[in-house]
Every structure is written in structure tokens, then in C-alpha cells.
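Hi Y.,

Following your request, here is the sequence exactly as I used it, all 667 residues.
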Amino acid sequence: MVNGLKPCIPLLLLFCCLSIYAQENENVAKSSSEETVLLQAYKHAATPVEKVEALESLAYHYNYRLDTVNAIKYGELYKEYADQTDNDFYQLVYYAGIVSNYGFIDKALYKEKYEEGVSYSKQTGDSTMLLKLTSAYADFLFTEENNTQASLKYLERAREMNQRIGDEIEEGYILSAMGRVSAEIGDLDIAVGYLKEATEIFTDPTLKLGAHVSVVEFLKEQGKIEEAVDELKTAQPFYEASIDKILKSDYQRVNGLVLAAQGKLDEAIAAFRLEKDLYFPDEHNDGSRELALGKAFAKKNQLNTAILWFQKSIDTGKAYSENGEMYSEAHLLMAETYNQLGNHEAAYSSLVEHRKVESEINESKEKALLNELVTKYETEKKEAENQLIKAKNARLQNRNVLFLALIFATLLFATVLGYLINQLGHQKKQLQRSYERLDQANSTKDQLFQILGHDLKRPAIAFQNMGKTLKYLVKKNQVEDLNEYASHIEEESLQLSNTVDNLLNWSLTQTEGFEPQVSSFLLEPFIDEVIAELNNQISTKQLNVRKELTVTEVRSDRNVLKIVLRNLLHNAMKFTPEGGNITIFSTLGDEQSWNLGVKDTGIGFCPALRAKIMEGGSQVTTVGTAGEAGNGMGLHLVRELAATLDGALNIQDNTPKGAVVEAEFSL
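Below is the corresponding structure, written out as C-alpha cells. Let me know if you'd prefer a different format.
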């Protein structure tokens, strides 16, 4: 009977091979069919938006199939068409979704796009987008930042979001990620629980296989060999159904480790060989397989063979970066094995190497602990500094209130003084002498009263008579005069506001303990902000303002620099005729300084005026090209503020082409 079946055996074998081949082709065909549909959708897309949506599907398809080359290719094409759509949403999808899975991102740019994506999702109420962003950011924290605690926190937040949305596949991804992060932290039981939940959710054989492989690995690390064997049996059907060679290789790796732990050496070696045949780059060999075989041979009392495998574990793992603890274990096992063989000299050498590696590991752990403590200390220190800054700001706010009260009181005094001067002319010299004695008795208030006497008196008197004049013009229905008077009032108000602003800023420089708050920022948007504040005055005189920036990013006190630039620009506007040109520039000085300045096509500085300003004595008051009043406080304030930043004021005269005024700061 058996002899009669012999001619059929080749046919039976051929049938079995064809069945296996057909099954494999069916899986490939499914992938191929999906790929064809997606490629056709991309090819026939008519608009950038349609192309973006087709390319997103293609990128995820190849990423899912672990085809890194095509995933990156179509991911970059996605970005190209996303730029053409002028729609931030597609950019956010790219940075928050696709890029985070490939690992070729710019970290700073990714974080920026993540924040933009969160803001966009909250504004539009797109909870699905917010969920994807949160999951992607958790993966970024784990893979790129090695911040396991923060990653787990974001994953828990993502899971809460998804429970409201009800996406089962997304739930599986989140659980798998939580398993990986928990294992990294050391919570292997919790990790296994998360991954087993994921295996129940996933329907795709490749996803199921990946989750099962991780479960086996964590069970083996805990020494739960029987449970690991059961898990391998559960995963076997998905191993057969999957077309993912990398995952299949991983399955054979954990299978070999479990077999080695059971002492089944021939089967373990066969599994490791199959792993290598499927997918096993040499640079990924961390020596764990050889170590497992060495342990197995040692258990079977084949000591010389065990030593060979221990040595091979050390040799093959040298190129692997995370091999410290394995090196230590391998050397210790070699020492114990040599000792059993009676080779005490070799045992001692291996033990010395073990101690050396252990010392390095402990030193690394101590450094990590020290870094953690330093980080905590810096955080607590920063919080304490923030509290001090808040207290200091509160004190400054109180001082500002006092300064405002002083200004109000001084303004009232100047008004009364002006009235007395008009009514009692013969007492004018006596009052003036008293005023000068007060100035001499208190040098700090000298600048204050000069400004009040010259600049605050005129608008105060103007405001005093404003009501009567307005009533008269309204009564007479003199609209043109009323408009002209309103413009005059607006001009006086702006001048008064500028004077008070400069006075407050000057008073801060006279305060004990004034310290600049230095930070880094981009110069161009900062300059645009200052120009916007003065836009009405620029438009009134029809001035052309442009920028020439050599230095684009600076480290300085933003508020101080804003006051400096505003006064330089205000000074240039004042002395430049209608239709003139003003240029704001930044240049590098020597190796230790940089300059911020304003160049205009105005009337320039005569030598005498320039000398008075640079001497820093009394303020120099001049009238602008459109009759603008002034108190000379602006450039005086610029010089003092520049000094707080270890800088100086420089004035170049370009008469008749105008003036160049710049403030020099240290880098």
C-alpha cells in the first residue's frame, strides 16, 4: 500500500507548496491592491488638496508596512503639496502625524507645530485631531526625548479622549504604546496587561503579532517561561498570516530566547538562524541571544561551550550602545563557569571585568540621579526666583503709583505756579530762585522739574481753557476751526503722553536696584511692533520707514530696547520733513558689541548741539520740522538706558543729508 503511494508523494508536496504560496500571494495581493488604489487616487487628483489627502493615505500605508523608503518619499511629497494649499491644517497633520512616526524631524519645529495644532484643534473643536496630536506627542516624548513619565501622562490623556470618541483601533495603538512605555519604566506586569488588551482589540494579524511578541518578551524577562510559551502558541497563527518580515524575525528572536531558557538548545539555535534569515542586521545584535545560549549550555553542564557563547555575547554586543548590564552579567557568568572548571586565573580576570562594568553602570546611575536632583533643584530655584520676581514687580507697581501721584501733584503745582506768575509778576524772580534752590537740594528730581516746567505747563494751560474754547467754537458752528483745534489738542496730548512715558522710564533708571531682564528674541518682529505704535505719526508726515538688519536675533532687555528704539525713531520723525526717509538698522560692532540705530534724511545735528547731547548735561530742546515741541529728554533717556545694558549712545552728523543716531550694546 505504501509502495503504491510513492508516486503520489511529489504531487502532494507540490500541492502543499502551492497552497502556502497561494496564501502568501493572497496577503501580498491585498497589500498590492490597496497600494494600486491609493496610487491611482494620487495620480488622478486634480487639486493640491486632493493630492494632499491621497498622499497622506499613501504615507500611512507604507509606514504601516514598514516600507521606510516609500513612507519618507510620499511623506515629503505630502509636505510639498501641503505648502501649496495655504492651509495650516495640512501642515499640522504633517508635523503632528506623519513626521513623528519616521524619526527625521526637527525637534524644535515639531514642538512648535504641535502647539499650533493643539490651538487649531481647540479653536475648531476637532477632538479627533486633538487626539492624534496628543498620541503623536507622547510617542515623540518617548522616542526622541526619552521622557517616559511625560510620555505616559500624554498617553493616559489620549486614552481618556479616545474613550469619548470611541475609536477601537486608536485604542489598540494607545494601549500598545502604554505597554512599551510602562516596560521602559520597569512596570512589566502593567505593560503585559496593556498589551494583552491591545491583542484583543486588533484585527490585523501584523498588529496582533507585534503585541504578542512584546508580551512574550516581557514575560520572559520576568522569568514566567510557561506563560511565555503559551503566548507564543497564541501568536503562531498571526505569525503565519503576517507578511511583515521584521515582526516575524522578532517572533523568532523571542521564541529562541524562551527555548534557550527551557534548555532546548538545538531548537533555540534553529530559531535564531531563522530570525537572521528573515531580517537581522548585524548592527542590531546586542548579544542577548548568545548570552541566552551560554546560560542554557551552562545548565546542561557543557561548561566549555557555555564559555564560548558568553565570550561571543560580549564580542557581538560591543557595537551595541545599551549593553552595560548584559556585559556585566556575561562576565560574571564566565567567572562562575571558569571557577567550576578550576581555571581560577581566568575566573579572576572575568570577575575583574565584571566589577569594572558594574562600576561604570553604578557611576552612570549616580550621574543620572545627580542630574535628576540638579533638575529638581533648578526647578525649585526657578520657582523661588519667580516668586521673588512677582514680589519685585508688585513693589515696582506700587512705586509707579507713587510716581503717578507725584506727577499729578507736580502738574497741579505747575498750573498754580503759572497762574501766580501771571497775577504776581513782581514775585516771579523770588519764586524762580526758590525753585532753583529746590533743584539744587535734590539732584534726582532736577530732571523731573525741568521737564514739568517746560513741557507740562503748556498742555496743562491748554487743557484748562479747552472747555471754554470748545463751547465757543461749537456755539459759532465753526467746524473747520473746531477740527483744527481738535488736531491741536491731539498733538498736545501725544506730546504730553510721550513726555510722561519718558519721565516714568527715566525714573526707573534712577531707582536703586534697577536690573535689566535679559532674554533672547528676534529683532525684525520686535521692530515692526514699535513701528506700528508710531504709525499714525509716520502717516501724518508721509515718511518712508524701512529696515536694514544685519543682526537678526539679540539677547537684551526687551522693554529697555523698546524704549530706546521708540525714542530714536521719534527723534528721527521729528527732524525729518514730510516725505523723508528713515532707516532702522542693526549692525555688528566688534566681537563684543552690536548696534541698533536710526538714519534719517532730516536737518541733522550741528556740532554744538551734538556736543551738548553727548556731554549728558542739561536737556537740549529743539523744534521739529513740522513745529513739533520737544524737551530733549528722549536722547538723554536713550543714553542712560543704553548704559544699563553696558552700552553707549553715538551720534553721527550727515548734514545736509540728515543724522545717524545709534545705541551700542554688548553681546
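Strands lie at 518-522, 544-549, 553-557, 581-588, 593-600, 648-653, 659-666.

Thanks again,
Q.
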